[in-house]
């Protein structure tokens, strides 16, 4: 006698939001409120609590709150969202030796993308080294940006293939500075720093058989839970095939109880004899 055993069958489907899983703005700094360093670094929009900017200064680095106007940021206003006015931008004086870490929790989101506008002064750092962290401590380089003493340029860093950053409360991105083609003082500037991602669609259980009611073939093949009427399980017999409702209490199904839902006990399982 050959046996064919199942314990739990679950049918699920993804519920896609009305946006068609399009990019959503998760975190956004427009740097328009320059009343203080604190207000300047506070996100303008954040769907997840805890987002922040942490700056570790170099020997003479400083955030110049009063210095975030001009340099054509206000003319171009690149990457602004929600119809925001140009306002001010983030200006880091003497950036060499400093680093900026953006805490960008991605709970419930995937396919992360970073975008911002940036430029430097004539003697500002000419290179930005960008890295990401999935554990909030260790960083992996992802991009090197050449910064120009010219009009602000829109930069984009695609993290969508870094699965470790999906649905991650510890996600961070960091920038460090090097002289490159620039100088050793001056400044680097940023505006409209955006973290986009896609909402991870939830799943809904449509149909579920736990095969725990083995009082008859009719009861053991009846769906335990269904959100759509007329779910059924039909067996077409081979030469000697038969569903054995009395035979589903062993073979470690009751110990492992794999894929059980709603806290269901192990109970019995579906045993299909002579399935060929």
What does the model show?
By secondary structure, the protein is mainly beta. The protein has 4 helices and 18 strands. The strands form 4 sheets. Strands 3, 4, 6, 7, 9, 12 and 14 form a 7-stranded antiparallel beta sheet that branches. A 5-stranded antiparallel beta sheet has the order 5-8-13-10-11, with no helix packed on it. It has a 3-stranded antiparallel beta sheet with strand order 1-18-17, with no helix packed on it. A hairpin with a 6-residue loop joins strand 10 and strand 11.
Give a nutshell description of this structure:
With 276 residues, this protein is mostly beta strands. The chain has helices spanning 37-41, 73-76, 217-220, 253-256, and strands at residues 3-6, 9-14, 23-29, 45-46, 52-56, 62-63, 90-93, 99-103, 109-120, 127-133, 140-146, 153-159, 172-178, 187-199, 203-209, 225-226, 242-243, 270-273.
């Amino acid at each position: 006698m050959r046996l064919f055993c199942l314990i739990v069958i679950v049918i699920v489907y993804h519920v896609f939001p009305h946006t068609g899983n399009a990019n959503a703005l998760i975190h956004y700094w427009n740097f328009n409120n320059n009343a203080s360093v604190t207000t300047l670094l506070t996100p303008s929009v954040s769907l997840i609590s805890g987002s922040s900017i942490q700056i570790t200064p170099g020997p003479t680095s400083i955030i110049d709150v009063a210095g975030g106007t001009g340099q054509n940021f206000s003319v171009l206003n690149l990457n602004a969202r929600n119809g925001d006015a140009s306002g001010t931008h983030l200006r880091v004086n003497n950036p060499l030796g400093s680093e900026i870490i953006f805490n960008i929790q991605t709970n419930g989101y995937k396919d992360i993308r970073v975008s911002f506008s940036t430029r430097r002064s004539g003697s500002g750092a000419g290179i930005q080294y960008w890295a990401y962290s999935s554990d909030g401590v260790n960083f992996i380089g992802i991009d090197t940006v050449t910064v120009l003493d010219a009009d602000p340029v829109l930069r984009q860093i695609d993290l969508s293939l870094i699965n470790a950053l999906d649905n991650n409360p510890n996600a961070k991105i960091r920038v460090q500075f090097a002289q490159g083609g620039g100088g050793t003082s001056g400044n680097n500037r940023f505006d409209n720093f955006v973290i986009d991602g896609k909402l991870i669609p939830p799943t809904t259980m449509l149909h579920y058989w736990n095969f725990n009611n083995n009082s008859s073939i009719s009861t053991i093949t009846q769906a335990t839970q269904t959100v759509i009427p007329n779910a059924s399980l039909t067996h077409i017999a081979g030469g000697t095939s038969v569903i054995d409702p009395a035979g589903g209490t062993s073979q470690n199904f009751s110990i492992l109880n794999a894929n059980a839902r709603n806290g269901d006990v192990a109970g019995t399982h579906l045993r299909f004899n002579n399935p060929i």
